[in-house]
């Protein structure tokens, strides 16, 4: 009988085998030792151990690597646990109510800025936009230019801004106001945006520039006349000759004739209007069609200003009583600088920096009003603008000599603002007397505060910690403190604790010299003389003209809140423009919101030829 050896060999069994049991046991043991002397494959192990007795693998084959089973299990477990925890946390984050971090409250300068801009809404003439947000104002003077009997060529003069508490449109101070606003936007657009007022101030500027484009033939290259004024301010006129000063009426109710004043030799006015359009073209540079239109209009006005010399207020003009121009040379420096920045044409820079022009403009005269920046004297503002050019672009020859002089003179003007020097007196309350004690001081103070803050920001941007006044070195912080002290005085930090910005704080002028604000909107049309009772009223104005900066206190810090005294209580758009510029310069975080160094140079070509590219690397 033959059996099969389960280990792979034949096994012969004889039934008649006479071997003893002991012998068979020894033979089997020999077989066991022989079997164990060679390894078993997995199949053989499974036969031997059976299904319930298989060995667990100590390693896991992942194809590219073999890892320990224990490490594999722990790794998979940790991954699954981490995924579970991450999902749980995500679920909690999405379901729990979120608490957004609120931005810090606006500082006092930002609050005042938002109010000061509202004054321009109250001064708008023509058909008002729906979002004007001054409830007591409406459409007014919709026939300006159309009903003129003086023979004026331009018949559509609707729009623009009223100058002050009356309804006259004086173009000379208005153009300065628009230039100031544009300058402040060019330098501090990030601060306007942070205050939520960038679109608002741009709308204000555009309302003014749209109107200026109507005051001359803006599509022509050459013109022979421009409009200087709409309305009449002759205070000697009797009841038979009603005008914007002899009458006390709401602009919406005006029914008398409003004459148009034109001029054919008015270099000061034309150059200032050119500056207004040129600076605005930089503000609206992203609107290429409109910006180009503004640049063309500015070039036309500039050519007119240079070709037909003269002063707009000469010859007994009505404007001479209110906004008399002392010269036009400073407008040539000021306007030429803005024309250069708007176009990049170096012929404008050559003119603006010419030593003879600087001499005519009073750069070397000195005098009590030297360094006082205003709607009449633009020299100091032009010097600051050209100092900017020297600090950041250094154009060199042939401009360096005059630019260095302007830089030095700007430094001297900044020194004169400091209390350590005696160029200007101060009231006991600390208000600098830039107009030497004459009435209506605040319009000059705010311009100086703007220039001081701006110049300090220029130096900071140029990594210059300060400047010299003689042998003494002063840090830029000193200029900023000067500006803050002056603006704080206007906002209420003065002996009377009076805010001279209407609507700011709780104690501010209530009888503002302003026709529209002083007459109630009650569906009653008051005649030229019928409204005088509101001028003489001892009560507060029925309409609060938010954001109006009044003329200001006297040299003794005194103030009379009397409607009939315009030297104390009348606001102007030129004054408010300077206030807006100073407030935005001081507002916000100085460390994060700085001046925009480059936008003003967007049209300026490189000062020096671009160097050629380096040669290609040598190859053997």
UniProtKB/TrEMBL annotation:
The keyword Iron-sulfur does not apply. Signal peptide: none annotated. The chain crosses the membrane at residues 71-93. Keywords: Carbohydrate metabolism, Cellulose degradation, Glycosidase, Hydrolase, Membrane, Polysaccharide degradation, Transmembrane, Transmembrane helix. GO terms for molecular function: cellulase activity. Pfam families: Glyco_hydro_9. The active site is at 513, 561, 570. It catalyses: Endohydrolysis of (1->4)-beta-D-glucosidic linkages in cellulose, lichenin and cereal beta-D-glucans. It is an enzyme of class 3 (hydrolase). Its EC number is 3.2.1.4. GO terms for biological process: cellulose catabolic process. Belongs to the glycosyl hydrolase 9 (cellulase E) family. This is Endoglucanase.
């Amino acid at each position: 009988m033959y059996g099969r050896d389960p280990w792979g060999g034949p096994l012969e069994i004889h039934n008649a085998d006479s071997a003893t049991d002991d012998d068979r046991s020894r033979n089997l043991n020999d077989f066991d030792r022989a079997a164990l002397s060679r390894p078993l494959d997995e199949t053989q192990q499974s036969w031997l151990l059976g299904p319930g007795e298989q060995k667990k693998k100590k390693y896991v084959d992942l194809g590219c690597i073999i890892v320990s089973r224990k490490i594999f299990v722990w790794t998979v477990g940790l991954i699954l646990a981490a995924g579970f925890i991450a999902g749980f946390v995500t679920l909690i984050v999405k379901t729990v109510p979120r608490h957004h971090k609120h931005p810090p409250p606006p500082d006092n300068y930002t609050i005042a800025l938002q109010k000061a801009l509202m004054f321009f809404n109250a001064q708008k003439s023509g058909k008002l936009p729906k979002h004007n947000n001054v409830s007591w104002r409406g459409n007014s003077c919709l026939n300006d230019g159309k009903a003129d009997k003086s023979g004026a060529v331009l018949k559509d003069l609707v729009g623009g801004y009223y100058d002050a508490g009356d309804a006259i449109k004086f173009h000379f101070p208005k153009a300065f106001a628009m230039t100031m606003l544009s300058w402040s936007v060019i330098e501090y657009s990030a601060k306007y945006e942070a205050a939520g007022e960038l679109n608002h101030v741009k709308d204000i500027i555009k309302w003014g520039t749209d109107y200026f484009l109507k005051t001359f033939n803006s599509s022509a290259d050459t013109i022979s006349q421009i409009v200087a004024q709409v309305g009449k301010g002759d205070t000697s006129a009797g009841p038979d000759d009603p005008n914007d000063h002899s009458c006390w009426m709401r602009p919406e109710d005006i029914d008398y004739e409003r004459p148009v004043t034109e001029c054919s030799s008015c270099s000061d006015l034309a150059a200032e209007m050119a500056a207004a359009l040129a600076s605005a073209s930089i503000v609206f540079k992203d609107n290429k069609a409109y910006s180009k239109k503004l640049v063309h209009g500015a070039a036309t006005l500039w050519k007119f200003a240079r070709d037909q010399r003269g002063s707009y207020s000469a010859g007994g003009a009505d404007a001479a009583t209110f906004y008399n121009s002392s010269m036009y040379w400073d407008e040539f420096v000021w306007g030429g600088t803005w024309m250069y920045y708007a176009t990049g044409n170096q012929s404008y820079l050559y003119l603006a920096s010419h030593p003879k022009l600087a001499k005519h403009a009073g750069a070397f005269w000195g005098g009590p009003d030297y360094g006082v920046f205003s709607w009449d004297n633009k020299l100091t503002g032009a010097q600051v603008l050209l100092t900017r050019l020297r600090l950041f672009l250094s154009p060199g020859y042939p401009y360096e000599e005059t630019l260095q002089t302007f830089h030095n003179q700007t430094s001297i003007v900044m020194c004169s603002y400091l209390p350590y020097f005696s160029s200007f007196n101060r009231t006991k309350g600390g208000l600098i007397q830039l107009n030497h004690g004459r009435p209506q001081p605040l319009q000059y103070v705010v311009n100086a505060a703007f220039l001081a803050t701006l110049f300090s920001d220029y130096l900071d941007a140029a990594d210059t910690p300060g400047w010299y006044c003689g042998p003494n070195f002063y840090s830029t912080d000193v200029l900023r403190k000067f500006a803050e002290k002056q603006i704080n005085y206007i906002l209420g930090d003065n002996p009377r604790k009076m805010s001279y910005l209407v609507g700011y704080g709780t104690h501010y002028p209530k009888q503002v010299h302003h026709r529209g604000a002083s007459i109630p909107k009650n569906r009653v049309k008051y005649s030229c003389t019928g409204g005088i009772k509101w001028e003489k009223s001892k009560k507060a104005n029925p309409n609060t003209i938010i954001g109006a900066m009044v003329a200001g206190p006297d040299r003794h810090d005194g103030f009379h809140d009397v409607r009939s005294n315009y030297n104390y209580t009348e606001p102007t758009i030129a004054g408010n423009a300077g206030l807006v510029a100073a407030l935005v310069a001081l507002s916000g975080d100085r460390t994060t919101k700085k001046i925009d160094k480059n936008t003003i140079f967007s049209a300026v070509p490189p000062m020096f030829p671009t160097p050629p590219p380096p040669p290609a690397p040598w190859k053997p």
